[in-house]
């Protein structure tokens, strides 16, 4: 047995039956074995292992258990094809091969990581990590480098003070570099006597600050832990060996190898020992015995005493005494100075076959441009960006106050960009967004905020899509703690927070981003043409590399764990799913989803991302943005799908834009509108719809309000007829888009009140002007824009109060291209749209299933919404007629003014 003075190793394997992520080999890289002992661990219950002698029986049992587990999970690689009756053999074979590749990929990952949870938690090891043994550990992946050093203001930008060389302890076979920054002793202080002395950096005081010496703690542990007689072997380490030698050879036994005669085999010695002690009392015998029936292998069959075994298992290591040596933060501050103070600026220095270079660490959690520094000359010509060590003292670190809201059954998403969210011509901050935008979102009736451009990117005009530092919040808007406060305040208002994540490509910048990170062209990205986007000038990830997967999957988990985000909108999947980056003509043929241009490695990454996110965070929401609508986007991964919760219908906004810009009002086709909005009826319930998102405003285009009512801010500069047309279509487009589809609707910031101007970020073409990089919130004081906002708010209340979007799929039963009327039922609500620009109908027949009284719940033509108010008060309630229409048993004869829509709610059921 070991004394408490011996080092104690504590392990805690991850055991989650939902993931089947345990490693068969348990192999780890050197850096994992080095750092894992320093991480806090939780002891897990012991498992009972069954040992068998047969060499063939164990693999058979494993195979049987695996097959049973698959049956329990319902694994079917082509399950969603069977569900929808798709009989394409080529695509079915592709799905089966993809499933086999997924299993092989998981096996490959588990040869290096203990579990997929650990593999997706790389942020616990990588980058800068505070170690409780008064030091900071730094870990980075750069397989192409020959030399690695940390340079910064903490060491005078020295390239030799803090380094790790190839072939030494700080570099392993996988290309990971490990550097230790020891905290500095204050003047007059002596190093700790214990090499494993730990400090609690959160609490001011800990048990080690009581004044009791280490020697007293160890004496107390030895006196209370060991039972009488057990500690004599600790005090005299040779006693056991000496006694064993005397029993075997006697007090005058042989002293040299020449005097030592040939020893009998183990079975003979055991039989002699049993014969010698056959008359001894049981108390003197060991708590085990050996079965010996004369067979060769009987000598290895040992039966243990259950009571002794139980007693042995109940004995726990004296961790409680060991923890009494841990000191608090004040004890550490009194004795040590931090090797890397909070706010320190640093970069990485590599020596590569192509020469020396500097990089911002890939796992840096806060990055600022040098121009934001107090003294640019301090950084010796480093004009790009610097990583900042973010480790505020506990009294200043942000503390979470609010719980994450419960996942709603329907989503009303408010999409926004923090930088342009203010009215002033400047880059707005997280704090500005908290004080001005979040209350507006709550008042408008939305239940989720989707933020774009939060992850650090080099150029502001790229909106945030050319990401350079995937683990860093953009310093343009504030600090990491500021963003935590934003998320926390949103949760306090009952709002979910989604992040638009860009893992489909990365910035090609070499000085700030990941391109040529270690001097080679194939560290994070593909080489050659495959590693470059054909049109956007960005780099394409190498999704089949386990280390790249380690980086990307950990990045998703990081934003959930560190910042408590509730979900992700995966941007531009088509650029990563195909080697042609989605720039090809799609006819809808299934061969286009399984031919040589499909990137199977990217598909496997998306499957892993959804499996891991939903297993570790069951309430997380993932949204797929794919213009090609890859089959199975929202189907379970166990059934051959990719596992997303929602997919964005991109064609809806494109249709509306084409109609508004290119088609006269009287030529609008109702059938086309309905078919585009509904899309594939098999997945309508998983569809996220929007009339216009940021693309119409940011990507060089105009907002719908600018097309419909121009840039005016009032009625005086536009004719009354044009203003009425524009506002009517603005309301009708949003109403049908938000209610005809699935369980999710999205609106871009400002469009709810008809923001009349596009967004244009400051760049060289506009002389870096901020005049259009803002939102005109002052327009809400104008009648026209306030009326549009009031309608949008009441439209959100249809779902907020009546749970409209969470109901089943809309029953579209009336689509007439001649009259330009659309009608559908959703729950107890009847929606009627008259898109005709001129014709009004006094008694238009619409079929309904339930007989009763239907009352107008929302009318786009009301005067408070800027309408004409043609419906009288006596027309707000309509009673059904016992006549079949539109395939329904009953019908209503409702008044339909031109360019208007009404929502009727069944308020009273009449029985025949």
From TrEMBL:
Places the protein is found = Plastid, Amyloplast
Q: Which residues form the signal peptide?
A: none
Q: Which UniProt keywords apply?
A: Amyloplast, Plastid, Transferase
Q: What is its EC number?
A: 2.4.1.18
Q: What is the lineage of its organism?
A: Eukaryota, Viridiplantae, Streptophyta, Embryophyta, Tracheophyta
Q: What is this protein called?
A: 1,4-alpha-glucan branching enzyme
What species is given as this protein's source? Anisodus tanguticus
Q: What's the chief localization of this chain? A: plastid
- Keyword Acetylation appears in the UniProt entry: no
Question: Gene3D superfamilies annotated for this entry?
Answer: Glycosidases, Golgi alpha-mannosidase II, Immunoglobulins
Pathway assignment reads: Glycan biosynthesis; starch biosynthesis
